Amino acid sequence: xxxxxxxxxxxxxxxxxxxxxxxxxxxxxxxxxxxxxxxxxxxxxxxxxxxxxxxxxxxxxxxxxxxxxxxxxxxxxxxxxxxxxxxxxxxxxxxxxxxxxxxxxxxxxxxxxxxxxxxxxxxxxxxxxxxxxxxxxxxxxxxxxxxxxxxxxxxxxxxxxxxxxxxxxxxxxxxxxxxxxxxxxxxxxxxxxxxxxxxxxxxxxxxxxxxx
Length: 212
What we know:
The protein is α+β, with helices and mostly antiparallel strands and 212 residues long.
């Protein structure tokens, strides 16, 4: 019975595919300007499609952009990141209004959406480019992230320890245009429905008071 269940899981993941696209347009998106009243946060939690859409649905989030962070190569491409040649993770930059939503709330949303106990993978996506990272811009943000992780570990979240990396905010590079708002533009995509959809629904269920 266990072998049959494992077979079903493998077949399901194969049919869903993975986070990626074969489009040939490599034009990068442009990062929006950040107003003096706004702040930015960057998180990486597996495929950026679902994470971007999840953050976009929260009150106070002005703009969420898919991109790459945490690596060494300047202005990497999707192909380079996916080939694990740059050290980057698929990430999302969130521009937000701190008078409407806090960094603490964004951090909680991040941990709600993905599985922070998986090392170098999220569901069907395997590799360091899919690792979990929470970036911080100052000591206070670092404390907030570490407190969230401590709480998850103390409450035995999913029964496993959190493996999320906590790193200083790096240079964020926007991904190609075709990756932006992918979930909204491709609602019938099998991967979107099978992988991104559940992530977003977890967030909507956990934080309904913050939904737009």
